[in-house]
Amino acid sequence: MNLTKLSKTELTGLCADLEKQYEGLKAHNHKLDMSRGKPSGEQLDLSNDLLTEPFSYRSENGTDSRNYGILEGLPETRKFFGDILGIEPDNIIIGGNASLSLEYDALMRMWVFGSKGSAPWSKLPKVKFICPVPGYDRHFTMLQELGIEMINVDLYEDGPDMDRVEELVKYDPLVKGMFCVPLYSNPTGSCYSEEKVRRLAAMNTAAEDFKIFWDNAYGIHHLYDEGEKLADIFALCREYGTEDRVFYFFSTSKITFAGAGVSLVAASEDMIKEIKGHMFCQTIGYDKVNQLRTLSFFNTHGGIREHMKRHAALLRPKFELVLDRFEKEFADSGILSWSRPKGGYFISVDTLKGCAKETVALCKGVGLTLTGAGAAFPYGKDPNDTNIRIAPSYPDMKELADALDVFCICCRLAAVRKLLEG
Ligand SMILES: Cc1ncc(COP(=O)(O)O)c(C=O)c1O
Fold it and tell me: Which domains does the chain have, with CATH numbers?
C-alpha cells in the first residue's frame, strides 16, 4: 500500500491505529541498541584463539618481536597484507591497533608539515574537503575539529558523483582532499566502480597536494562468496602520474578484535618515505608481537579469507532479516527506500523528507537506540532529514527482530504524521 496516495481520512485512521501500536510497544520495556557498527560477541569469539594459542615471537628473519625496532613493521606482516590487498609490501607501513589513528596522523602531518614542500594546510586561509554523503561520522568529526570546510557530494551505489567532484577540484586550490570508503561504504554499502576509481586517479586538481584518504575498512568484508572487486587505485594513479595522491588505510578491527587488531597505511614510495620520516619522531615502532600473533592465528585457522567467511555466516542472516522485513513492510509504501549491501556493516535507509529525526526519536521513546539522524553527514546535518544508519551486526537475531518491530511502526508513524501535515 502506497501511503503517499492515501486520502486524509484514510491517513487519520491509520495514524490512530499506529499510535495505538506505538503505545503497545511501551509495555515491552525494550532496551535495544542498533547505534554502532560493532561486531557481535559471537563474531569476536571467532578470534578467541588469539588469546590463548602459542606463537613464535621470532619473525621469519629471526627478529625478536618483543624488542624495539622495525618502524615500518615486520616484512612478513607487510607481505601478508600486501598479498591480500594487492599492494607491494614496500608501499605498506604497519601501524598500531586502529586505522583511524593512522588517518588522523596523515591529516595532521598535512596540517602541520605539508608534503613535498607544499604549505602546511594549517597556514592556508581555508582548507576544504570533499565528503561523499552519507559517510562515516568519524571522518567528518576529524575534519570539523580542524575547522576544515566540508563539501557534501552525493554518494551513489557505484561511488561519488564524479562530475561534481571533478568540478570542485579543478579550479579551487583550497580543495585539498577527500575521504572515500570505496568498498561496502559506511553506511550505504556503495562499491566504487572501476570507472569512478579511474576518474579519481585521473582528475586534474588545482591543489598539487590533493589527497585521497582511501579508507578501505571493509576491503574483504564480503557477505557473499562472489564479493565485489575494487579497482587498484595505485595502479591507476601510476598510469596518470598521481601516485602521491592516495593514502590507503586498512585494519583487522572487524576481522579479529575491534580496536585491538593490526592497521596499515599504504602510499607511494615518496609518501612512504615522508610518512616514515615523521613517524620516526612519533614512535620507535608499533606492536610487532601482535603482528606475529595475528599472522600465526590466520595461518593455523585456514587463512584470513576463510575467517571472513565465518564472519559472513554470522552477519548474513542479520542483514537478510532486515532486508526481508523492509521488503515486506515497505516495498510499495512510498515512505522508505534502503540500500542492499553485499558486504560491510551497515544498511542505509531514507525516510520521507523531514522524517528521520522524528523516526529516531520515536524509536528512542520505546527503548530502541539508533545512530542519531544526521550522523552520516558533515556537521551532523542531513539537509533533507531523511537518512538513518541501520547497524545490524551487534544485536542477536531475537533482539534484531524486536528492533525491527519497533523501527517499522515508528517509521510509519513518523511518515503518516508528516503526510497529514502536508
Ligand atoms: C569506514 C571506517 N573506517 C574506520 C573505522 C575504524 O577502524 P579502526 O578500528 O581500524 O580505527 C570504521 C569503524 O567503524 C569505519 O567504519
Answer: 3-43+306-421 (3.90.1150.10), 56-300 (3.40.640.10)
